[in-house]
Amino acid sequence: MILIALASIAATANQNATVEHRGARYDVAHRAHVETRTKTVGAAVGARAGMQRCRWTATVRVQREIARPGGGEGIATLLPASETVQGDRPGACMGRTEVSDARVRDAAARLVDAAHADRAATLAAIDAAHGLAAN
Fold first, then answer.
1. Whole-number Å distance between alpha carbons of 33 and 26
2. Residues 82-107 pLDDT 10s
3. What top-level branch of life does the organism fall under (predicted)?
């Protein structure tokens, strides 16, 4: 099995915002994080037409990054909510790193929207980071 992060789908599903909390401004980015596992099933026999199929499973999660504007590195967290999408396509998986499936893009968009809408969780993460920095 091959584990591949799909940047193309992740790039299509992201949201950026600026949040004010306790008198400070923060840049908050929510991006889709897609991991795909592939497995070739079936047989390819000599000169005959192959019976191989590439079965894939994509697990979609959201990464939230919180940073100060112009402050460089921020805190990145992979959020626990996820959706799994499965499918297959003809042929072997070798060398095929992209899964272009509307279901994966839809799942990524749903998760990013939900994470972006959860302002309370974002503020709690900012407070937790301040708590750690103060100790």
1. 21
2. 999 998 888 888 876 667 778 888 88
3. Bacteria
